[in-house]
Amino acid sequence: MRKVPLTMASMLLFGFLLACNQSDDLSDNAVSTEISSTDDNPGEGMQQPSSSSPGASVERVSRFPKSFISGSVVLDSSSDTRVVRAEIVTRQGTLLMISQGREERGHLAVPSNYGREGDLTFQADYSIVYRQAGKEDTLLLDLPAFLFVRPNDEKVPFEKVRFQDADVYFLAPQYKSGHGMEAYVFAIDRSSGEATALKVMQKGHAGGKLVYSEIEPSPHIENDRLVVHPPIVAGTPEEDTRDVLYRLDLANKRLVAIDNKN
Question: How many Cα atoms occupy the beta-carbon half-sphere of 69 within 13 Å?
Answer without folding.
Answer: 28
